Amino acid sequence: MSSATLTTAPAGRVKLRNLSVMIDGRRHEIVNMNIVDVLIAGAPDWIAPRQKLNFTFVLSLEGKQRALPTYGVVVRNDAQGLEVRYNAPVLRWRDVLARLITEDARAAANANKT
After folding, report:
1. What's the pTM value of the predicted model, to 2 decimals?
2. Positions in the chain whose pLDDT score sits under 50
3. Is 9 in a helix, a strand, or coil?
4. Looking at beta carbons, which pairs linking 2-10 to residues 24 or more positions away fall under 8 Å?
5. What is the DSSP string of 36-99?
């Protein structure tokens, strides 16, 4: 895991460069996330707490992008970002996140070597 990931995310949360979110066809950066909720930057301010939200995780692995639609409930939407408690988009979501963390760390290590 990169040192930026370790210092910018609260304990138990990660920030991945190879994962983002699509809401209403617009891509948004993930501030940080864990296995059950995600904090999204720059989301529309009309999204209100306790609202159901359909969105898509966009994974970038090995030069390919894959969309994983899901939904969740908005916890808050303020200056820090849009926090959503979401349902796992696939059955083995924990394994997918583990692979994304590994790939992100590998990419950061390779970038530091150059």
Report:
1. 0.84
2. 1-7
3. coil
4. 2/104, 2/105, 2/108, 2/109, 4/108, 5/104, 5/105, 5/108, 8/32
5. SEEEESS--TT--TT-EEEEEEEEEETTEEEEEEEEEEEEEEETTEEEEEE--SSTTHHHHHHH
